[in-house]
Design brief:
There is one protein chain. By secondary structure, the chain is α/β, with parallel strands linked by helices. It has a single domain (12-132), classed as Rossmann fold, CATH 3.40.50. It is 44% helix and 18% strand. It has a 4-stranded parallel sheet, sandwiched between helices. Helix 4 links the parallel strand 3 (80-88) and strand 4 (106-110). The chain is globular and about 45 Å long.
């Protein structure tokens, strides 16, 4: 091997799906992280999730998995050999759940949070909470 030459694994593109927190958006806190990761050479997807302020839980709990699937597929189509999921607050909980359902290269949980007993949460996800129990 050449000294100073990138290894085969270092040359692989890494994609990161960034998941914002509840009532936030991809244009809020998550945007800074997305820009940082892009500057570091990573491929980034920064989707607007159902718990954003403008979407206000417009889809049920199972739907967010398919939205993350779409973001992962987009990163893979752009050449990502590995994909990690990074989430803040409720996005961290979604990242953790997603990693139990799909194969990912890594997760980053930033200030995981959420209130599963709140009225709005239970209206939209109550059946899922009951099923989990």
């Amino acid at each position: 091997a050449l000294i100073g030459a990138p290894s085969e694994s270092a040359a692989q593109k890494v994609g990161v799906v960034v998941l914002h927190g509840r009532w936030d958006s991809p244009r809020g806190w998550a945007l800074g992280l997305a820009h940082y990761l892009e500057r570091e050479g990573h491929l980034v997807a920064n989707p607007e999730m159902p718990w954003s302020g403008s979407r206000s839980y417009d889809k049920g709990a199972a739907a967010f998995v398919s939205e993350i699937d779409a973001a992962v597929a987009d990163l893979r189509a752009k050449g990502a050999a590995k994909v990690a999921i990074a989430g803040h607050s409720q996005g961290a909980l979604a990242a953790l759940y997603y990693a139990t359902q799909r194969e990912v290269s890594g997760i980053a949980l930033i200030a995981p949070g959420g209130y599963a007993q709140g009225k709005l949460f239970l209206e939209h996800y109550g059946a899922t909470v009951a099923e989990a129990r």
